[in-house]
Amino acid sequence: MSYFPPHTVEELLAAVARLVVGEQETRAQFEAEPTAFRWIFYRGDTDVWIRLLRLPDGSKHDKAGTEIWSSWQTVDSVAQAVIRCFDQVAHSYGESTYHAKWGHPFPRRELEALRAAWRGLASESRGTSPSL
After folding, report:
1. 30 with 8: CB under 8 angstroms?
2. CA 122, CA 76: separation in Å to the nearest integer?
3. This protein's superkingdom (predicted)?
4. Contact in structure between 15 and 27 (CB atoms under 8 Å)
5. Which end of the chain is more exposed for a tag (fewer CB within 10 A), N or C?
C-alpha cells in the first residue's frame, strides 16, 4: 500500500471544491513513490472532463505521464461521488481510526468546504437544497 502525504487528500477535496465554484481547471496529485498520480479536472459549463495520469515522477510535465483513465461527468456527480466517498470513510472507520491509520487527521474542514460549495451549486441549479 502506498503512503499518501497528509496534503494529498486535502488537495483532492480542494480541487473538486474549486471546480464546483467555477474554476475551469483544477488539479490534485497523489505521490505513490516512485510514481505519482495526477487528477486533472477541466470544467465546461455543467460538465467536467476528468483525466487521471500516472507519471514516473511527480515533478514531470503532464506529457511525461500516461493517461490511465478519463471520463466526462457532470460537476454535480463528481462532487456527490467525492463527498459520499469521504463520508463513507468517516462512517466506516471513524475519524480517530483514520488518524491512527494514516498518521494525520481526517480532512473534515476540506470535506465540509466541498459540501458547502456543492450545496450552493445544487441550490443555484435546481432551486433546492441537496441532502448530502
Report:
1. yes
2. 7
3. Bacteria
4. yes
5. N
Could you tell me the residue ranges of all domains in the chain? Answer: 6-122
pLDDT per residue over 24-82, tens digit each?
999 999 998 889 999 999 999 999 999 999 999 999 999 999 999 999 999 999 999 99
Kindly report the CATH number that applies to the domain delimited by 6-122: 3.30.2450
C-alpha cell at 57: 515522477
Closest residue by Cα to residue 85 from 26, 15, 19, 9: 9
Residues in the chain: 132
pLDDT at 1: 43
- CA–CA separation, 126 and 67 (whole Å): 34
DSSP the chain: -----HHHHHHHHHHHHHHHTT-SEEEEEEEETTEEEEEEEEEETTEEEEEEEEESSTTS-GGGSEEEEEEEEEHHHHHHHHHHHHHHHHHHHHHHHHHHHHSS---HHHHHHHHHHHHHHHHHHHSS----
Burial of 104 (0-12, 13-18, 19+ CB in 10 A): middle
